[in-house]
Predict the structure.
Amino acid sequence: MVFISVSATAPVNSPLSSPKLSINDLYAALVYKARYPKDFVAPIESSSVIHEHADGLTRKVMFKAGTMGKLEKQEVEEVVDFYPPTRVDFHVPATGMRVSNIISYASEDTENEEELYLTFSFDFPHPEITDREKQKQEAEEILERHRKGSAKVVPHTIEIARQMKAEGRL
C-alpha cells in the first residue's frame, strides 16, 4: 500500500480580513471542528463523540454517499489528538489515514499574530497502488486530485473560524 501525502497552507489574517484571529481563536475553532466537523467538512453527514480524554477524543463520522471513494455512505472511527495551542491530529486506525491541522507563525516573527498560517497535511492510504514507480501515472493523478481538494479546505476552515469569532462563539 502506498500513502499519498499533500499539504496546503494559507495565511490566516490578511490585511483586509475581519475580525482578526489570534492563535487561541484558531486553535479553539480547530477543537470545535474536531467535535462538530459537519460545518467544516462538506462530505460529513453526521458525527458523534464516543470517548473523550485529556488530550483528545474518539469520534464516529458518517460520510455522505459518493465520498471517501465509496458509492454508499461510509462510517469511520477517528482518533483526534490535541496539541495546544498549535496542532490537532486526526487518525483513522482502520485505514491509516492521517490529517494534521497545524497553526504556525511566519518564520521571521514568532510573536506577531498578524503573521499566522494554517496548514493541513494529509496522508491518504491507497491500497490499490502497490508500486509507486510502476503505477506512476495513476499515483500522480491521485496526487493531483488530493492537491485540488486540500487547497480548498484550509481557506474554508479559516472563514468558518472567522465567522465563529464574529458571532461570539470563540
Observations:
- The beta strands are 2-11, 44-53, 56-63, 74-83, 87-92, 97-105, 116-126.
